[in-house]
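Subject: Protein entry, chain in single-letter code together with its fold tokens

Area: Proteins and the way their chains fold up in space.

Attached in line: The record itself begins immediately under this heading.
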Amino acid sequence: MFQCKGRAVLIPFFAGLWLAFGCSESEQRAESSAPAPTPPVAAVPAADAATAQAEAEKIFSERCVTCHGANGAGDGPASAGLVPKPRNFQDTAWQQSVSDEYIEQIVQYGGAAVNKSPAMPANPDLMSKPAVVAALRVKIRSLAK
């Protein structure tokens, strides 16, 4: 739920439609184009952080490399048949243009959730693992050239 002039605005996730009670059209557009907020992540103990990082590395090598490539250039073995091509994580302009929250959202909810290619799959199993999602974001950020 979002707040608009002190009143609640419901946003059904599955259809991308929403009912607004008293919001102006410009407020509706601004709310509908903004990615959903990511809840804050609590500090993670070092041992848990290391475990999350190891799990993130494993997930990246098993799931992400297929399309994004080992170095994140968007040149994985499955990328040849994809239109649009997978995101090149080495692109510093793109890295600077997106927030950490955006990266975490697309990792969890997939491309369709942020109006990008639905070929980028969701990872619903990661929704209960914020430390692993954060570690995947750090991995993606580390690939910038």
